[in-house]
Design a protein that fits this description.
Strand content: 25-35%
Number of helices: 12
Oligomer: single chain
Number of domains: 2
Structural class: alpha+beta
Shape: globular
CATH class of the largest domain: Alpha Beta
CATH architecture of the largest domain: 3-Layer(aba) Sandwich
Low-confidence stretches: 1-18
Order of helices and strands: EEEHHHEEEEHEHEEHHEHHEEEHEEEHH
Length: 385
């Protein structure tokens, strides 16, 4: 009898085959490292997001482990061809298993429309039947086929679900001239950028510089971070921010070690020779991603982060090196450029109402959470630098 292999660490199990789609679940990052070349080749013609290529995914996987999650990758195959995948992570407490997508920016990806429904069926089947999860938070693109099909699968399996809108993904199409783009902005904002330029002139000599990711640029990034708003965080929250940034930077470095699947640059705004803000960009095909940005909070009166991003956006319109700019998230700061927003929505899927209430007590109870926060803060304070 034909069967699929469910791989969970070193354990093998069987899943029924449907429409010749098999499901491979990988929870060991070293197992994924062994198949990274195959993974990247399969994604090359279908996926534009740099964070889903092995160089980035491996580092984000390790980061997720370090902050207390058990990440795993669900891969859907037709023969030896990947037709879709879902990056997920799991937590277990007092016997209750809870699963979510890697973060609110990551959605399951399906390469072919005719495989979407069967892949979603198998994903839900693995989560609630084979992994015995009580609840799962799955993020998909709003008003998409994945949304409609996920609801259909949940109804078919009598699973309750609740919708939670997410912040979405801000995108600026680069289809017009710089003059037209400037005219599309609020006059007040255009005047504000000019005012910031004059304030920088009064403060001294300033320039915008570009580097590849090397020792010099890494030193400058951490110099900015040392005085950013994150510097005021303590314990676990500060450690998580630092570990998250380190994971991204290591992933970009890993991309340069072999076959490169995206271009990367770090842009700095310098004042009197001191970096006061930076933007880490990644470019794949004709999309430029603003992957990470921060600024020195001692200079917040000149909005150095926003000023630098605006300068980079204007450069893209002038040189035409990209067809669109992707902010990945949709934070309020980007509204000044009036981007288009690709909405995302998270589905909270529940096995049953009674157990979902128990799960809420276990995972979201404020007293329990506060006690755990105190213990975790003590643990992270003792953690060596």
């Amino acid at each position: 009898m034909a069967c699929d292999l469910l791989v969970l660490g070193n354990k093998l199990g069987k899943i029924d085959v449907k429409m010749s789609v098999s499901t491979l679940v990988i929870s060991d990052v070293n197992r994924f490292v062994g198949m990274k070349d195959f993974w990247d080749r399969e994604l090359r013609d279908h996926v534009n997001d740099p964070f889903l290529y092995s160089c980035m995914l491996i580092e984000l996987w390790k980061f997720s482990q370090r902050v207390g999650w058990h990440p795993f990758l669900m891969v859907f195959l037709s023969g030896e061809k990947i037709v879709g995948f879902a990056p997920l992570r799991m937590r277990s407490r007092f016997g209750f298993r809870y699963v979510s997508t890697f973060d609110q920016y990551t959605c399951p990806e399906f390469f072919y429309d005719n495989y979407r429904e069967v892949c979603l069926e198998q994903m839900v089947n693995v989560l609630f039947r084979h992994l015995n999860c009580e609840s799962a938070d799955i993020t998909v693109r709003d008003e998409s086929a994945d949304q409609r099909l996920l609801e259909k699968v949940c109804r078919k399996r009598n699973l309750r679900y609740t919708r939670f809108p997410q912040e979405g993904q801000a995108i600026i199409p680069v289809k017009s001239s710089l003059i037209f783009f400037r005219e599309s902005l609020n006059r007040k904002d255009v005047r504000e950028f000019k005012r910031i330029g004059r304030k920088l002139d009064k403060l001294g000599s300033w320039q915008i510089s570009c580097f590849g990711l090397d020792r010099v640029s890494l030193t400058r990034i951490w110099e900015v971070e040392r005085h950013s708003w994150k510097a005021y965080l303590k314990g676990k929250e500060k450690a998580k921010k630092d570990l998250g940034l380190s994971a991204i930077l290591k992933g970009v470095e890993r991309n340069g070690e072999g076959v490169s699947y995206f271009e990367s640059e770090v842009w700095f705004l310098e004042l009197n020779g001191v970096p006061i803000s930076y933007v880490l960009t990644m470019k794949r095909n004709k999309t430029l991603f603003f992957a990470k940005t921060s600024f020195d909070s001692r200079y917040k009166e000149v909005s150095p982060g926003t000023f630098l991003m605006n300068s980079l956006i204007e450069q893209v319109f002038m040189n035409g090196r990209a067809d669109k700019i992707d902010f990945i998230s949709n934070l309020p700061v980007v509204n000044v450029w009036k981007p288009l927003v690709v909405k995302r929505i998270t589905y909270g899927i529940l096995r049953n109402v009674f157990l979902s209430k128990a799960r809420r007590l276990v995972f979201e109870n404020r007293v329990c959470s506060k006690a755990l926060q105190i213990l975790e803060r003590f643990k992270w304070k003792r953690r060596p630098n």
